[in-house]
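Milestone 3.1: sequence recovery, worked example.
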């Protein structure tokens, strides 16, 4: 059994957009890369684990220090993936030119930094045939965006509906509901219907869900869940051949130390947990993973899946 750990490096502005809070404080523009990323990197290094970092291109373009941090991780064996240039949640709904621009601009930024890019993750987990066309043209080995969790979809819909009632519509979008029927294990998708098996030149590595109920098994849910539930999710994932464990940079943020305003902390339960406690929980999780799974990058998993499907 294998597990791949990936971290979406969404900036604080993404969460302000989700919760319709307006523009965030300017001084927090790069808080995730400047403050949260080093904490996460130190934890993974402590356990000797290589991970995949999904990068928003705009955060590196013209910001040399951010690029140097990520290049040092790539030089040490981690993988950098494409998370679009500016993280538009509506990417799957944009026209072909805009989709190409978002993916290709991030691709150019990353290739200038590390020379090659293997994988992509869409903002908001939504994909489209147009996006797959761009990824295939760029020679990507995998996409890791499909998230077939009805529970997550319902929770997201409830939050967005509540904000709409309050007259503060969320900047996030609901994904194509057909993606909820996608296979939960790695598969080769159809270019025109990414939720179905097909003959695309790249493979899909879905975000993790548990067997049967397809409960989302991602870092944020494991972080805020009580210990007994975290253990139950880990046990359930042992029935999967592959666990695509997705985390976010904000999982390693500390509201007090990083100066994150209360208006966001109120809406993000994970920000109410002190960083010392977060690191303790993730430390135990990594020990559990190492005892039961082989830890690989998503690029390594994609290479194996390409041979099998």
């Amino acid at each position: 059994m294998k597990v791949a750990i990936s971290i979406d490096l969404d900036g604080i502005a993404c969460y302000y957009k989700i919760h319709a809070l307006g523009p965030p404080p300017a001084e927090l523009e790069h808080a995730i890369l400047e403050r949260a990323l080093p904490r996460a990197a130190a934890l993974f290094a402590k356990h000797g684990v290589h991970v995949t970092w999904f990068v928003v291109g705009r955060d590196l373009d013209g910001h040399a220090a951010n690029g140097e941090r990520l290049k040092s991780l790539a030089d040490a064996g981690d993988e950098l993936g494409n998370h679009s240039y500016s993280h538009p949640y509506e990417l799957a709904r944009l026209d072909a030119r805009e989709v190409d621009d978002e993916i290709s601009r991030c691709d150019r930024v990353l290739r200038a930094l590390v020379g090659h890019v293997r994988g992509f993750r869409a903002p908001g987990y939504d994909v489209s045939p147009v996006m797959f066309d761009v990824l295939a043209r760029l020679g990507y080995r995998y996409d890791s965006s499909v998230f077939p969790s009805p529970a997550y979809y319902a929770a997201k819909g409830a939050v967005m509906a509540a904000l709409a009632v309050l007259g503060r519509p969320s900047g996030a979008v609901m994904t194509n509901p057909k993606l909820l029927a996608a296979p939960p294990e790695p598969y080769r998708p159809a270019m025109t219907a990414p939720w179905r098996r097909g003959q695309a030149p790249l493979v899909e590595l879905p975000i993790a869900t548990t067997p049967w109920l397809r409960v989302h098994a991602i870092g944020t849910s494991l972080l805020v869940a009580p210990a007994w539930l975290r253990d139950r999710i880990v046990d359930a994932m042992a029935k999967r051949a592959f666990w695509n464990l997705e985390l976010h940079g904000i999982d390693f943020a500390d509201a007090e130390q990083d100066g994150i305003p209360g208006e966001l902390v109120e809406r993000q339960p994970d920000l109410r947990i002190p960083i010392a406690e977060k690191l303790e929980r993730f430390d135990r999780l990594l020990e559990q993973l190492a005892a039961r799974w082989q830890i690989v990058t998503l690029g390594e998993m994609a290479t194996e899946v390409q041979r099998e499907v």
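The mean pLDDT is 97. The longest strand covers residues 2-8.
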